[in-house]
Design goal:
This protein is mostly helical. The protein is built from five helices and no strands.
Length: 109
C-alpha cells in the first residue's frame, strides 16, 4: 500500500492545548480527566499539543466532552473555540437528541 497525503486540522493542537489550559490541568491531570490513564501517557498528550501526534477518534471525542464543545469545533479550522470553557455543545448531550429526530442507539431493549 502506498502512502497518501491526508488533510489534517491545522489548529487541532492549539485547540486541545486551549481546553487543558482553560480547565487549569497539567498534562497528567488531563489524562485522568479524559479517563485514559491505561491508554495514553503524558508524552502523548504533549505530542497532541505540539502537533506531532493526532489523538484517536475516541480520545478526540473525550476531549470534546471534557471541553464542552462539539467535535467539529475541534476538527474544523474555520470554527473557533468558545470564549469560555467548558462550553455547552450546540447539539446538547446525547440524551437531548431525541427531539431533534435522532434515535437513541445506546438503549438496550
Amino acid at each position: 500500500m502506498g502512502r497518501y497525503h491526508r488533510n489534517k486540522p491545522v489548529r487541532l493542537a492549539e485547540k486541545l492545548l486551549n481546553i487543558r489550559r482553560a480547565l487549569g490541568l497539567s498534562q497528567n491531570e488531563m489524562i485522568r480527566r479524559l479517563g485514559v490513564e491505561d491508554e495514553i501517557t503524558q508524552s502523548r498528550i504533549s505530542g497532541y499539543e505540539l502537533a506531532t501526534r493526532e489523538p484517536s477518534l475516541p480520545v478526540l471525542l473525550k476531549y470534546a466532552r471534557v471541553g464542552g464543545v462539539c467535535v467539529d469545533v475541534l476538527i474544523d479550522d474555520k470554527l473557533n473555540m468558545p470564549a469560555k470553557l467548558p462550553g455547552v455543545p450546540k447539539h446538547g448531550e446525547p440524551g437531548q437528541l431525541k427531539g431533534m429526530g435522532w434515535k437513541d442507539t445506546n438503549k438496550r431493549k
